[in-house]
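User: Can you predict the 3D structure for this chain?
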Amino acid sequence: MAQVLVVADDLTGANATGARFARTGMRVATVTPEHVSRVVGDYDVVVANLDSRHVPAEQAADLVTDVVEAVWPVGLVVKRTDSTLRGNIGAELEATYDAVRERVPAGTRVRVLCVPAFPSSGRVTEDGVQLLNGVPLEDSELAADPLCPMTTSVVADILAAQTDLPVRHVPVRQVTQTMLTAELLAGDEPIVVCDASTEQHLSDIAEAAAAAHHSDGTVWVAADPGPTGALLAYALRLRGQAGSRGPLLGVVGSTTELTRRQVATVARTGAVRFVDLDAVALAEEADDDHADGVARELSEQLTSSGFPDLCLLRVVNTSEQVRELPAQVRAELPGRIARLVADVINEVADTTGAHALPSGLYLTGGDLVASLLDELDVHAFDVGGEIVPLAVHGHISGGPLDGTPVVAKGGLVGDDITLVECLTKLRRAVQTRLHQVHSEVSEHVVPTLLRDTV
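Assistant: Here is the predicted structure, written as structure tokens:
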């Protein structure tokens, strides 16, 4: 059954939001209201396009109520809003809130997490005011919008035009992980409007809302233009039932200066979690604590609830430090790292299932690549081609990661941005694989929808 319902008011926004969920590995379908009940058993995320932005507010509210009723129960309802807050924002949001509140157990707290910001598209919220490329909505070209002219950029005022639900404002200065959970739990207003001006703010808000849910059982309705709803679903551990997997896993066994610069380039993007491995400590057989600690942290990162979608295990030692190790120890080091990683992957597979296994694998260091593929019982590397010379992409066959996309390269290959290029290719390969799974799952559904809409 579907785990997420997205209620959208136009097709462009519906598909863009659906793409956010598909990126996490969930099966997504965008349908019209009359088809939602037909696909609810075959997709993880149902995106209902109501095409309601310019219909009367009462009609829009009725459409919202109907689709929630048709899809319920789900783990999360997302009211997709226009990124410039046009349309029946207040009416649809109130209808979503009421529909969810009527269907949860008595006494359950329901709140709307309203995060209108979409920083990567130039939409941010500061002091409760929505800005488009730094300009208030009423001072932008939207003031002359022929169907929905914007006369204010104050989010609470825009909502108040169509709903009497009280609003609580969380300013950007309080959008930090340590303070935000308590802030989201405070007050009793049904709608919580959060400032946000960066992608990190969105991640922090989603993680804090999930923590609030686990703390007191608060059921959230997400109201946003796309990013925060997907982040919240992930933070709530809502996962796809088929084709869904965990983050990309990078294992960097090379200690060359070029590799360090490549890793540093990725680190500047902020979209990575690091697990640091001290090769010298690992090489000392008496020091099992370090190996156990690294394995534990790697397992936690693979199974954790939040973004980003890349976990990178890196050797923190310099080449000089590794060269100082005895020759036999140096020779055995790639195998020891490989066994550590393989043991974690096998444990994750046994305890949490396939959904937490890496969705893609990036490997650097020739000896490490060979050792890890051997430890994972891989019997074939299905080569797809080169990204740059000596950086190869493909799929692996056999073992717990059978069919998983992989990129492998040497530690002296490429330039400072080659790792970024490799990860881009790997993400595309993961999406292609997921879409193939999705098409197999939905093969019997799509022809019916097409036939019924022709």
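Residues 437-454 have pLDDT under 50 and may be disordered. The first helix runs from residue 11 to 23.
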